[in-house]
Write a structure and sequence with these properties.
Nucleotidyltransferase, domain 5, 14 strands, binds zinc ion
Amino acid sequence: MKSAEALSPLLQRIAQGSATTRAELARVTRLSRSSVSQRVDALLDNGLVIEEGTAPSSGGRPALRLRINAEAALILVADLGATRARFAVSDLAGAELGSSDQGQDIDQEPAKVLAWADGQLRMLLDRAGRQPADVRAIVVGLPAPVQFATGTAIKPPLMPRWDGYRVPGYFAERYAAVTLVDNDVNLMALGEHRATYPGLEHLLFIKAGTGIGCGIIVSGHLHRGADGAAGDVGHIHVPGCDAPCRCGNTGCLEAVAGGQAMASHLTAKGLAAATARDVASLATRGDTLARQEVRAAAQHIGEVLAAIVSFANPSAIVVGGSLAQLDDVLLSGIRAGIHARALPLAQRSLRIETSTLGERAGTVGAIALAQDRLLSEEGLDHLLRIRR
Ligand SMILES: [Zn+2]
Protein backbone atom coordinates (compact mmCIF):
# COMPACT_ATOMS: atom_id res chain seq x y z
CA MET A 1 0.00 0.00 0.00
CA LYS A 2 1.40 3.37 -1.07
CA SER A 3 0.95 6.29 1.26
CA ALA A 4 -1.07 9.40 0.57
CA GLU A 5 2.16 11.37 0.48
CA ALA A 6 3.38 9.34 -2.50
CA LEU A 7 0.05 9.17 -4.31
CA SER A 8 -1.33 12.71 -3.90
CA PRO A 9 1.00 14.46 -6.42
CA LEU A 10 0.08 11.94 -9.13
CA LEU A 11 -3.62 12.10 -8.37
CA GLN A 12 -3.58 15.91 -8.52
CA ARG A 13 -1.92 15.89 -11.94
CA ILE A 14 -4.40 13.33 -13.26
CA ALA A 15 -7.29 15.43 -11.92
CA GLN A 16 -5.93 18.62 -13.52
CA GLY A 17 -5.36 16.76 -16.78
CA SER A 18 -1.74 17.96 -16.84
CA ALA A 19 -0.39 14.37 -16.99
CA THR A 20 -2.70 11.45 -17.73
CA THR A 21 -0.49 8.57 -18.87
CA ARG A 22 2.21 6.69 -16.96
CA ALA A 23 4.87 8.15 -19.30
CA GLU A 24 3.64 11.73 -18.78
CA LEU A 25 3.49 11.21 -15.01
CA ALA A 26 7.06 9.90 -15.00
CA ARG A 27 8.20 12.92 -16.98
CA VAL A 28 6.55 15.59 -14.80
CA THR A 29 7.29 13.94 -11.43
CA ARG A 30 10.83 12.79 -12.40
CA LEU A 31 10.04 9.42 -10.82
CA SER A 32 11.14 6.21 -12.48
CA ARG A 33 8.64 4.41 -14.75
CA SER A 34 8.45 1.53 -12.28
CA SER A 35 7.72 3.83 -9.30
CA VAL A 36 4.99 5.56 -11.31
CA SER A 37 3.50 2.21 -12.33
CA GLN A 38 3.40 0.99 -8.72
CA ARG A 39 1.69 4.20 -7.62
CA VAL A 40 -0.80 4.19 -10.46
CA ASP A 41 -1.63 0.57 -9.62
CA ALA A 42 -2.31 1.62 -6.01
CA LEU A 43 -4.62 4.40 -7.25
CA LEU A 44 -6.43 1.91 -9.51
CA ASP A 45 -6.72 -0.67 -6.69
CA ASN A 46 -8.25 1.96 -4.43
CA GLY A 47 -10.75 2.99 -7.08
CA LEU A 48 -9.46 6.57 -7.20
CA VAL A 49 -8.59 6.58 -10.89
CA ILE A 50 -9.90 4.78 -13.96
CA GLU A 51 -7.97 3.67 -17.02
CA GLU A 52 -9.59 4.16 -20.36
CA GLY A 53 -9.10 4.68 -24.09
CA THR A 54 -5.72 5.17 -25.69
CA ALA A 55 -3.45 8.15 -25.96
CA PRO A 56 -1.38 8.72 -29.13
CA SER A 57 1.96 7.08 -28.56
CA SER A 58 5.30 7.66 -30.27
CA GLY A 59 5.67 4.11 -31.50
CA GLY A 60 5.20 0.93 -29.48
CA ARG A 61 2.04 0.08 -27.56
CA PRO A 62 -0.68 2.74 -27.32
CA ALA A 63 -0.76 4.28 -23.81
CA LEU A 64 -3.85 4.06 -21.64
CA ARG A 65 -5.28 7.36 -20.37
CA LEU A 66 -5.97 7.80 -16.68
CA ARG A 67 -8.75 9.90 -15.27
CA ILE A 68 -10.09 10.56 -11.83
CA ASN A 69 -12.88 8.21 -10.74
CA ALA A 70 -15.75 10.67 -10.32
CA GLU A 71 -17.62 8.05 -8.24
CA ALA A 72 -14.89 7.79 -5.58
CA ALA A 73 -16.38 10.55 -3.39
CA LEU A 74 -19.42 12.78 -3.10
CA ILE A 75 -19.21 16.46 -2.12
CA LEU A 76 -22.03 18.36 -0.37
CA VAL A 77 -22.29 22.15 -0.35
CA ALA A 78 -24.47 24.37 1.82
CA ASP A 79 -23.86 27.97 0.77
CA LEU A 80 -25.77 29.84 3.48
CA GLY A 81 -26.46 33.51 2.91
CA ALA A 82 -28.30 35.97 5.16
CA THR A 83 -31.68 35.43 3.49
CA ARG A 84 -31.08 32.71 0.84
CA ALA A 85 -29.32 29.38 0.79
CA ARG A 86 -28.04 27.36 -2.13
CA PHE A 87 -27.31 23.65 -1.90
CA ALA A 88 -25.41 21.34 -4.24
CA VAL A 89 -24.21 17.75 -4.53
CA SER A 90 -21.26 16.97 -6.78
CA ASP A 91 -19.01 14.04 -7.60
CA LEU A 92 -15.24 14.03 -7.14
CA ALA A 93 -14.73 15.33 -10.69
CA GLY A 94 -16.79 18.40 -9.80
CA ALA A 95 -19.92 17.59 -11.84
CA GLU A 96 -23.06 18.86 -10.11
CA LEU A 97 -25.53 16.01 -9.55
CA GLY A 98 -28.22 18.31 -8.17
CA SER A 99 -28.77 21.74 -6.65
CA SER A 100 -31.51 23.80 -5.02
CA ASP A 101 -32.14 27.33 -3.86
CA GLN A 102 -34.23 28.22 -0.78
CA GLY A 103 -35.18 31.24 1.29
CA GLN A 104 -33.94 31.14 4.88
CA ASP A 105 -33.11 33.21 7.95
CA ILE A 106 -29.53 32.63 9.11
CA ASP A 107 -30.02 34.43 12.43
CA GLN A 108 -31.26 31.40 14.40
CA GLU A 109 -29.71 28.68 16.56
CA PRO A 110 -26.91 27.14 14.43
CA ALA A 111 -27.97 23.53 15.13
CA LYS A 112 -31.47 24.36 13.88
CA VAL A 113 -30.20 25.96 10.65
CA LEU A 114 -27.75 23.09 10.06
CA ALA A 115 -30.44 20.44 10.66
CA TRP A 116 -32.59 22.15 8.04
CA ALA A 117 -29.60 22.43 5.65
CA ASP A 118 -28.78 18.74 6.18
CA GLY A 119 -32.39 17.87 5.33
CA GLN A 120 -32.11 19.80 2.06
CA LEU A 121 -28.82 18.07 1.21
CA ARG A 122 -30.25 14.61 1.93
CA MET A 123 -33.19 15.40 -0.34
CA LEU A 124 -30.73 16.23 -3.15
CA LEU A 125 -28.77 13.02 -2.50
CA ASP A 126 -31.98 11.02 -2.60
CA ARG A 127 -33.09 12.64 -5.86
CA ALA A 128 -29.69 11.88 -7.42
CA GLY A 129 -29.95 8.25 -6.24
CA ARG A 130 -26.84 8.62 -4.03
CA GLN A 131 -26.08 7.54 -0.46
CA PRO A 132 -25.02 9.74 2.50
CA ALA A 133 -22.42 7.00 3.26
CA ASP A 134 -20.49 8.02 0.10
CA VAL A 135 -20.09 11.68 1.12
CA ARG A 136 -16.41 12.52 1.76
CA ALA A 137 -16.43 16.33 1.93
CA ILE A 138 -18.91 18.94 3.10
CA VAL A 139 -18.41 22.66 2.54
CA VAL A 140 -20.44 25.25 4.42
CA GLY A 141 -20.34 28.92 3.38
CA LEU A 142 -21.38 31.50 5.99
CA PRO A 143 -22.01 35.26 5.70
CA ALA A 144 -19.62 35.78 8.61
CA PRO A 145 -15.98 36.16 9.62
CA VAL A 146 -14.86 32.52 9.73
CA GLN A 147 -11.78 31.05 11.37
CA PHE A 148 -11.04 28.57 8.58
CA ALA A 149 -8.79 26.25 10.60
CA THR A 150 -11.53 25.42 13.14
CA GLY A 151 -14.64 26.01 11.01
CA THR A 152 -15.94 28.59 13.49
CA ALA A 153 -17.71 31.91 12.95
CA ILE A 154 -16.24 34.60 15.23
CA LYS A 155 -18.46 37.47 16.46
CA PRO A 156 -20.61 37.38 13.31
CA PRO A 157 -22.70 40.60 13.17
CA LEU A 158 -25.48 39.07 11.00
CA MET A 159 -25.80 35.91 13.10
CA PRO A 160 -24.67 36.49 16.71
CA ARG A 161 -25.94 33.09 17.94
CA TRP A 162 -23.27 31.36 15.82
CA ASP A 163 -20.36 32.99 17.71
CA GLY A 164 -17.86 30.23 18.56
CA TYR A 165 -20.06 27.40 17.27
CA ARG A 166 -17.95 24.69 15.60
CA VAL A 167 -19.81 23.73 12.43
CA PRO A 168 -17.64 20.66 11.62
CA GLY A 169 -18.76 19.05 14.91
CA TYR A 170 -22.36 18.94 13.67
CA PHE A 171 -21.47 16.97 10.53
CA ALA A 172 -18.78 14.78 12.13
CA GLU A 173 -21.51 12.77 13.90
CA ARG A 174 -23.45 12.26 10.68
CA TYR A 175 -20.95 11.69 7.84
CA ALA A 176 -17.56 10.05 7.22
CA ALA A 177 -16.49 13.32 5.66
CA VAL A 178 -14.18 16.28 6.20
CA THR A 179 -16.13 19.52 6.81
CA LEU A 180 -14.71 22.84 5.60
CA VAL A 181 -16.29 26.14 6.62
CA ASP A 182 -15.47 29.37 4.86
CA ASN A 183 -16.71 32.90 4.45
CA ASP A 184 -19.33 33.01 1.65
CA VAL A 185 -17.47 35.67 -0.32
CA ASN A 186 -14.21 33.67 -0.21
CA LEU A 187 -16.09 30.79 -1.85
CA MET A 188 -17.52 33.12 -4.51
CA ALA A 189 -14.05 34.51 -5.26
CA LEU A 190 -12.68 30.98 -5.60
CA GLY A 191 -15.57 29.95 -7.89
CA GLU A 192 -15.27 32.95 -10.18
CA HIS A 193 -11.49 32.61 -10.35
CA ARG A 194 -11.57 28.90 -11.23
CA ALA A 195 -14.46 29.06 -13.68
CA THR A 196 -13.94 32.38 -15.43
CA TYR A 197 -10.46 33.80 -14.75
CA PRO A 198 -8.15 30.81 -14.10
CA GLY A 199 -5.22 32.64 -15.70
CA LEU A 200 -5.45 35.81 -13.57
CA GLU A 201 -3.02 36.05 -10.67
CA HIS A 202 -4.67 38.87 -8.72
CA LEU A 203 -8.44 39.25 -8.46
CA LEU A 204 -10.89 40.79 -6.01
CA PHE A 205 -14.46 39.56 -5.75
CA ILE A 206 -16.93 42.02 -4.22
CA LYS A 207 -20.24 40.77 -2.93
CA ALA A 208 -22.92 43.44 -2.80
CA GLY A 209 -25.96 41.98 -1.10
CA THR A 210 -27.42 42.22 2.40
CA GLY A 211 -23.87 42.89 3.53
CA ILE A 212 -20.71 43.82 1.65
CA GLY A 213 -17.65 41.59 1.54
CA CYS A 214 -14.55 40.94 -0.51
CA GLY A 215 -12.73 37.74 -1.47
CA ILE A 216 -9.06 38.12 -2.40
CA ILE A 217 -7.10 36.01 -4.87
CA VAL A 218 -3.38 36.73 -4.64
CA SER A 219 -0.85 34.93 -6.86
CA GLY A 220 -3.60 32.53 -7.94
CA HIS A 221 -4.55 31.55 -4.38
CA LEU A 222 -7.29 32.57 -1.97
CA HIS A 223 -5.86 34.89 0.67
CA ARG A 224 -7.58 34.42 4.05
CA GLY A 225 -5.07 36.29 6.17
CA ALA A 226 -3.77 35.23 9.59
CA ASP A 227 -7.16 34.44 11.13
CA GLY A 228 -9.52 34.25 8.16
CA ALA A 229 -10.71 37.86 8.40
CA ALA A 230 -9.03 39.19 5.24
CA GLY A 231 -11.43 40.98 2.90
CA ASP A 232 -14.04 41.95 5.47
CA VAL A 233 -14.40 45.38 3.85
CA GLY A 234 -18.01 45.85 4.98
CA HIS A 235 -16.80 47.30 8.27
CA ILE A 236 -14.32 49.81 6.88
CA HIS A 237 -15.29 53.29 8.04
CA VAL A 238 -16.82 55.67 5.50
CA PRO A 239 -15.67 59.23 6.35
CA GLY A 240 -18.48 61.57 7.37
CA CYS A 241 -20.99 58.76 8.02
CA ASP A 242 -22.25 57.75 11.44
CA ALA A 243 -25.05 55.21 10.76
CA PRO A 244 -25.06 52.50 13.45
CA CYS A 245 -23.80 49.11 12.24
CA ARG A 246 -24.73 45.64 13.48
CA CYS A 247 -21.09 45.12 14.45
CA GLY A 248 -21.50 47.71 17.22
CA ASN A 249 -19.55 50.42 15.44
CA THR A 250 -20.86 53.36 13.42
CA GLY A 251 -20.32 54.55 9.85
CA CYS A 252 -19.29 51.14 8.43
CA LEU A 253 -19.54 50.71 4.64
CA GLU A 254 -22.18 48.01 5.18
CA ALA A 255 -24.29 50.27 7.42
CA VAL A 256 -24.21 52.96 4.73
CA ALA A 257 -24.24 51.01 1.46
CA GLY A 258 -25.31 47.41 2.28
CA GLY A 259 -28.56 46.03 0.85
CA GLN A 260 -30.16 46.00 4.29
CA ALA A 261 -29.25 49.65 4.86
CA MET A 262 -30.64 50.61 1.44
CA ALA A 263 -33.88 48.74 2.19
CA SER A 264 -34.32 50.69 5.46
CA HIS A 265 -33.62 54.01 3.70
CA LEU A 266 -36.29 53.19 1.11
CA THR A 267 -38.76 52.01 3.76
CA ALA A 268 -38.31 55.36 5.53
CA LYS A 269 -39.25 57.01 2.22
CA GLY A 270 -42.47 54.97 2.05
CA LEU A 271 -41.41 52.15 -0.29
CA ALA A 272 -41.98 48.46 0.47
CA ALA A 273 -38.42 47.07 0.72
CA ALA A 274 -37.32 44.60 3.39
CA THR A 275 -34.25 42.98 1.81
CA ALA A 276 -31.41 43.61 -0.66
CA ARG A 277 -33.41 41.64 -3.22
CA ASP A 278 -36.39 43.97 -2.81
CA VAL A 279 -34.07 46.93 -3.47
CA ALA A 280 -32.70 45.17 -6.56
CA SER A 281 -36.15 44.44 -7.97
CA LEU A 282 -37.38 48.01 -7.34
CA ALA A 283 -34.31 49.43 -9.09
CA THR A 284 -34.65 46.93 -11.95
CA ARG A 285 -38.23 48.06 -12.47
CA GLY A 286 -36.91 51.61 -12.82
CA ASP A 287 -38.01 53.10 -9.48
CA THR A 288 -36.23 56.46 -9.27
CA LEU A 289 -35.70 56.48 -5.49
CA ALA A 290 -34.31 52.94 -5.55
CA ARG A 291 -31.93 53.77 -8.41
CA GLN A 292 -30.70 56.90 -6.60
CA GLU A 293 -30.14 54.81 -3.49
CA VAL A 294 -28.11 52.20 -5.40
CA ARG A 295 -26.08 54.89 -7.19
CA ALA A 296 -25.16 56.56 -3.89
CA ALA A 297 -24.24 53.19 -2.35
CA ALA A 298 -22.12 52.27 -5.38
CA GLN A 299 -20.18 55.52 -5.03
CA HIS A 300 -19.36 54.68 -1.37
CA ILE A 301 -18.34 51.13 -2.32
CA GLY A 302 -16.16 52.51 -5.15
CA GLU A 303 -14.38 54.92 -2.82
CA VAL A 304 -13.52 52.15 -0.36
CA LEU A 305 -12.43 49.94 -3.28
CA ALA A 306 -10.19 52.72 -4.62
CA ALA A 307 -8.08 52.42 -1.48
CA ILE A 308 -7.95 48.65 -1.85
CA VAL A 309 -7.03 48.89 -5.55
CA SER A 310 -4.13 51.19 -4.66
CA PHE A 311 -3.09 48.77 -1.93
CA ALA A 312 -3.44 45.43 -3.75
CA ASN A 313 -3.25 46.31 -7.49
CA PRO A 314 -5.61 43.55 -8.72
CA SER A 315 -6.11 42.94 -12.46
CA ALA A 316 -9.83 42.32 -12.07
CA ILE A 317 -12.64 43.23 -9.72
CA VAL A 318 -15.65 40.94 -10.12
CA VAL A 319 -18.92 42.14 -8.59
CA GLY A 320 -21.47 39.56 -7.43
CA GLY A 321 -24.27 39.23 -4.88
CA SER A 322 -27.96 40.03 -5.19
CA LEU A 323 -27.37 43.66 -6.22
CA ALA A 324 -24.92 42.77 -9.02
CA GLN A 325 -27.77 42.35 -11.50
CA LEU A 326 -28.03 46.17 -11.40
CA ASP A 327 -24.83 46.35 -13.38
CA ASP A 328 -25.69 49.61 -15.14
CA VAL A 329 -26.17 51.63 -11.92
CA LEU A 330 -23.97 49.64 -9.54
CA LEU A 331 -20.94 49.04 -11.75
CA SER A 332 -20.89 52.55 -13.18
CA GLY A 333 -21.00 53.96 -9.62
CA ILE A 334 -18.22 51.64 -8.46
CA ARG A 335 -16.12 52.47 -11.56
CA ALA A 336 -16.59 56.20 -10.93
CA GLY A 337 -15.53 55.83 -7.28
CA ILE A 338 -12.41 53.86 -8.20
CA HIS A 339 -11.41 56.06 -11.14
CA ALA A 340 -11.71 59.19 -9.00
CA ARG A 341 -9.36 57.95 -6.27
CA ALA A 342 -7.06 55.07 -7.27
CA LEU A 343 -3.64 55.79 -8.77
CA PRO A 344 -3.35 55.56 -12.58
CA LEU A 345 -0.79 52.73 -12.54
CA ALA A 346 -3.04 50.65 -10.26
CA GLN A 347 -5.92 51.14 -12.73
CA ARG A 348 -3.94 50.58 -15.92
CA SER A 349 -4.87 46.93 -16.44
CA LEU A 350 -7.88 46.82 -14.10
CA ARG A 351 -11.12 45.27 -15.39
CA ILE A 352 -14.36 45.66 -13.46
CA GLU A 353 -16.95 43.05 -14.39
CA THR A 354 -20.16 41.47 -13.18
CA SER A 355 -19.90 37.88 -11.96
CA THR A 356 -20.52 35.42 -14.79
CA LEU A 357 -21.57 32.66 -12.38
CA GLY A 358 -24.16 34.79 -10.55
CA GLU A 359 -25.90 32.85 -7.78
CA ARG A 360 -23.75 29.77 -8.51
CA ALA A 361 -20.38 31.42 -7.71
CA GLY A 362 -20.37 30.20 -4.08
CA THR A 363 -21.26 26.58 -4.82
CA VAL A 364 -18.77 26.37 -7.71
CA GLY A 365 -16.04 27.70 -5.39
CA ALA A 366 -17.07 25.34 -2.59
CA ILE A 367 -16.82 22.31 -4.89
CA ALA A 368 -13.33 23.45 -6.00
CA LEU A 369 -12.29 23.86 -2.35
CA ALA A 370 -13.54 20.35 -1.53
CA GLN A 371 -11.78 18.81 -4.55
CA ASP A 372 -8.50 20.49 -3.61
CA ARG A 373 -8.80 19.15 -0.06
CA LEU A 374 -9.77 15.60 -1.06
CA LEU A 375 -6.86 15.34 -3.52
CA SER A 376 -4.35 16.84 -1.07
CA GLU A 377 -2.14 14.57 1.01
CA GLU A 378 -4.36 15.03 4.06
CA GLY A 379 -7.59 14.47 2.12
CA LEU A 380 -6.26 11.43 0.31
CA ASP A 381 -5.13 9.90 3.59
CA HIS A 382 -8.75 10.22 4.79
CA LEU A 383 -10.08 8.62 1.57
CA LEU A 384 -7.62 5.73 1.79
CA ARG A 385 -8.39 5.06 5.47
CA ILE A 386 -12.13 4.82 4.75
CA ARG A 387 -11.56 2.50 1.77
CA ARG A 388 -9.41 0.09 3.78
ZN1 LIG B 1 -19.77 47.41 11.09
